[in-house]
Amino acid sequence: MRPLRILTLATLFPHASKPNFGIFVERQTAGLNAREDVEVTVINPLGVPPWPFSGNARYAELLALPSHENWCGLDVYRPHFTLIPRIGGPLNPCMIARAIWPLVKKLHADKPFDLIDAEFFYPDGPAAMRIAEKLGIPFTAKARGNDIHLWALRKDCAGQISEAADKAAGMLAVSKALKADMIDLGMESEKIEVHYTGLDRKRFHPKNRAAEKAKLGVSGPLVLCVGALIERKNQALLIRALPKLPDVTLMLAGFGAAEGKYRKLAKELGVADQVRFAGSVPHDELPDMIGAADIMALVSESEGLANAWVEALACGTPVIASNVGGAPELIRSPDAGRIVERDVQEIVTATKELLTNPIPQEAVAKQVAHFSWHENANQLENFFHGLTDR
Fold it and tell me: Are 366 and 337 contacting, i.e. CB atoms less than 8 angstroms apart?
């Protein structure tokens, strides 16, 4: 019997110029492809605007990427679609489908696909819907957070998301909370399965905290925040907490448009020497950095289920999180950390509690003992087989 052939459509996927971008999609897909009776082909559409905008340095990097390559053992194609900066969001699904159709048609003729797996609900989901209709095969769409909390609330995109949800053979959500949000939008509960992220336990596990701090040149308490430096992630609240936490070093691992604003804020508050901007940290280096931290804090406006939460807990580092998305599904015990309001004083109080009464690292790591990439791939394979066997 031939393997189940999956076409994974993922705008959120790493490449040479952004090796951390969507790395959790890469790990999930690699885990699925490693199964004996599954064969995965990845199409990672890259949005490039018309000339002269395409001359921008960041688009030049995309244009320089190979159109077809082996990426971490995966067969990955990277076709370009026309991106209209700032106003093109509602057009992206159609532009993606139009751009990739000749490639998909050729690949399908050589080796027919059984199902299309859209790895981000928007724009991947509506694009997958268009291609699946042409091929006459089912498709699925996975919700990860921002696709539902942002794009599904835009009037110019909501209709496409609703249509994709109606026509999808099945849907996935990264947390129970996100599934509930999808149902609130009118999506069919019976078609949605919760699919938690995976975890590489060989890399993310408790380490000697003092030794890892020494490598970073940090003395005293260390609070780490892993996430893009954008206002939705609320790193400003962590910076504002520092005047009441004079011994604490805050390390921000990530980059984004708000970095300049955050540097200015730290200087204005007189805590610039307490804040370290680590930039985009390669994923392979994160375990050591997390292992050095006493606390991982991420108090976002919205999340699905942040991989950074899971990886921090696996390293024995308790988490301070806002009550969003899947946070309550992870922080179910005081041994996992604290859920707080997006409020400076609550962050200060939680930080002091966790620093004054540190939780044993093994007790923290135990909170995510059920997470693994093996289980993630096993559930995904069963989900896909169930849909194609109907």
Answer: no
Token duo for residue 232: 């939705």
Residue 51: its pLDDT value, please?
Answer: 85
Q: What is the pTM of this model?
A: 0.92
Clarify whether residues 164 and 296 are in a common domain.
no
Is the alpha carbon torsion for 11, 16, 21, 24 positive or negative?
A: positive
pLDDT tens digits along 163-184: 999 999 999 999 999 999 999 9
72 with 152, same domain: the answer is: yes
- In this structure, which amino acid lies at residue 162? S
Taking the CA atoms of the chain, what radius of gyration do you get in angstroms?
21
User: How much of the chain exceeds pLDDT 70, in percent?
Assistant: 99
Question: pLDDT value at position 390?
Answer: 47
The string of pLDDT tens digits covering residues 104-117 is 999 999 999 999 99
What's the burial of 91, exposed, middle or buried (CB within 10 Å: 0-12/13-18/19+)? middle
Dump the DSSP string for 111-144. Answer: S--SEEEESSTTTHHHHHHHHHHHHT--EEEEE-
Q: Is residue 204 part of a domain?
A: no
DSSP 8-state symbol, 3: P
Same domain for 184 and 270: no
Q: What is the pLDDT of residue 52?
A: 80
Q: What is the domain-level CATH number for residue 356?
A: 3.40.50.2000
Residue 203 lies in a domain: no
Q: Which of 198, 197, 194 minimizes the C-alpha distance to 175?
A: 194
Residue pair 326/219 in contact (Cβ under 8 Å)? The answer is no
SS3 at position 44: coil
DSSP 206: -
Q: Which residues, in sequence order, are CB contacts of 189 under 8 Å at separation 6+?
A: 179, 183
Cα distance between residue 273 and residue 1, in whole Å: 62
Reduced to 3 states, what is the DSSP secondary structure of residue 168? coil
Residue 41 falls inside a structural domain: yes
What's the 3-state SS for 77-120? ECCEEECCCCCCHHHHHHHHHHHHHHHHHHHHHHCCCCEEEECC
Q: How far apart are the C-alpha atoms of 228 and 232, rounded to whole Å?
A: 9
List the structure tokens of 336.
Answer: 């996992």
